[in-house]
Design brief:
single chain, 510 residues, five-stranded parallel beta sheet, 21 helices, 5 strands, elongated
């Protein structure tokens, strides 16, 4: 059975994101409550609802001017925070995470501070403005409204976003609640019209995500450039730069705000609290935001590559039509160049029109099928039937060995570019992922864009546009590497990309 210390550790989000006061005070007390309530069978959502009422009560206590009521407000807000800590710790320990819980967790803190701002407004409305005999009146309402809506809310939401981003890079998606607008909006659109509660949640949550993303353009570009999965070196550099900012995410959530509030109310100058939101906390927010965006900007690659596959990575810059013809010549298949060319074009059209290549076909199976179909077509044109058995296996073995040598060389080159985003764009048959795995290309590319999957074929520039979007870059920052002038180089240049024509010899009609 786990000890209290072990359970406490398991209930943390991470050591990087836990504040000293939480680690040594809030979380231990929250865990005691969690274990107690869990034994009673109380769901975390019930505890969150309790925290809402405690927070409202705290806000009302702060509208009084005497120490006794203010101390009671401090106690109630601390209890609300213990409950907030408890529900999260219980959810992490027991796995009791629900949609309602997510709604309540975000809603509860907003209600606490709304009640606190209302309490301050009621308290100061008829009180004299410092140094004058004039009452605060509407001025305190405007000050609290500005502090709450224009400063507190953006500060808290971005602090939470940066914390979730850090957890994503530290622990992966399972250890983080990092979501995005498109994903949440898609969920909202798929929900039935009758699911009013779920639709309301996802509609608002999608917009919440959108507001976070709109304020972090450099992070969004960094994230998109690596397709959300940067290499280990870049991920560690990000964490090193993000880790010092976690103290600001904590300061901008609860503890620093609460301590400021307690002191201001107990000293009978509650106007100091909203003023701190607008000045000191906003300065923290600006520093945190600028530093995080600068970190992302420094780690965002300014060059990405789009690679072709067939004729580029698997033959080293020789078009497959010529590779096949050279094999026919080496093994003295008794056909002319024109006969072979007609057979090659016929089979390629046949494979494009019919799903003869299955999604689980290896390259060898694909090659075997193509050579067999070519020879069968040539037989129809006059080649002796025995030619299939005579040449088929020999040609397949020859070309498969050549492909293994060339792909091994291509892998060596790609591994020299570990920190450069790379996307693969290829006219292929729907089994490219299997072929890449066969030759060891796993993990080399952030995304594979295959014509049979996306429904667009080269030389249509749109298939390269998909690659540019996958890299999250402008066309000027992308270099396309391919063996075909017509299919790779010209469409890439048309979009504004740089292009490298990998061609061991000028392609010629054969």
């Amino acid at each position: 059975m786990a000890t209290f210390k072990e359970l406490l550790q398991l209930s943390f989000k991470s050591e990087d994101t836990e504040e000293w006061l939480d680690v040594h005070f809030t979380r231990p007390i929250g865990l005691v409550f969690a274990l107690f309530w869990n034994r009673l069978g109380i769901h975390p959502n019930v505890i969150t609802i309790l925290s809402i009422f405690l927070g409202i009560g705290a806000g009302w206590m702060f509208h009084y001017m005497d120490i006794r009521h203010n101390l009671l407000g401090v106690l109630l807000l601390m209890l609300a925070n213990f409950c907030d800590s408890t529900d999260g710790q219980m959810a992490r320990l027991t796995g009791k995470k629900t949609l309602v819980g997510r709604v309540l967790d975000g809603f509860s803190g907003d209600v606490w501070f709304a009640a606190i701002y209302i309490g301050i407004v009621v308290r100061l409305w008829h009180q004299p403005f410092p140094g004058t005999e004039l009452s605060w009146g509407v001025l305190i309402f405007l000050l609290c409204a500005a502090a709450g809506f224009l400063f507190h809310a953006p500060q808290s939401s971005l602090a939470d976003y940066y914390r979730q981003v850090h957890l994503y890079f530290l622990l992966g998606k399972k250890g983080s609640e990092l979501d995005n607008y498109r994903q949440q909006r898609a969920i909202y659109k798929q929900l039935p019209k009758g699911a009013l509660f779920s639709r309301l949640f996802y509609y608002n949550y999608a917009n919440y995500c959108k507001s976070q993303e709109s304020r972090t353009p450099c992070f969004q570009r960094f994230f998109a450039s690596w397709h959300q999965q940067p290499p280990a070196k870049v991920r560690e550099q990000f964490l090193q730069g993000s880790r010092p900012l976690m103290k600001y995410t904590n300061l901008l959530t609860f503890n620093a705000r609460a301590i400021t509030l307690y002191v201001a109310c107990l000293l009978d100058c509650p106007w100091v609290y909203p003023l701190m939101e607008i000045t000191v906390f906003q300065a923290m927010y600006v520093y945190m935001h600028r530093t995080h965006e600068g970190l992302c900007r420094s780690l965002t690659p300014h060059q990405g590559y789009i690679f072709d596959y067939g004729g580029t990575l698997d033959t080293g810059g020789i078009h497959w039509r010529e590779v096949l013809w050279q094999a026919y010549e080496r093994h003295q298949v008794p056909v002319t160049a024109q006969q072979f060319r007609e057979a090659y074009v016929f089979v390629e059209r046949q494979l494009g029109a019919q799903p003869l290549v299955k999604p689980d076909f290896t390259f060898r199976q694909t090659l075997d099928l193509k050579v067999r179909l070519q020879l069968e077509h040539l037989i129809e044109q006059g080649l002796t039937p025995s030619a299939i058995e005579q040449y088929h296996q020999t040609i397949v073995d020859d070309l498969y060995a050549l492909t293994k040598r060339e792909t091994a060389h291509s892998l060596t080159v790609l591994r020299q570019l570990p920190d450069v985003p790379k996307v693969l764009v290829s006219n292929f048959y729907g089994n490219l992922s299997v072929v890449l795995h066969e030759f060891g290309f796993d993990g080399c590319f952030q995304q594979i864009i295959e014509s049979a999957v996306v429904g667009v074929r080269k030389p249509d520039p749109q298939i390269f546009q998909l690659g540019i979007e996958a890299l999250g870059m402008s066309p000027e920052e992308v270099t396309v590497v391919g063996d075909s002038l017509e299919n790779d180089i010209l469409p890439a240049r048309q979009l504004g990309c740089r292009a490298v024509w990998l061609n061991k010899r000028i392609n010629k009609e054969i």
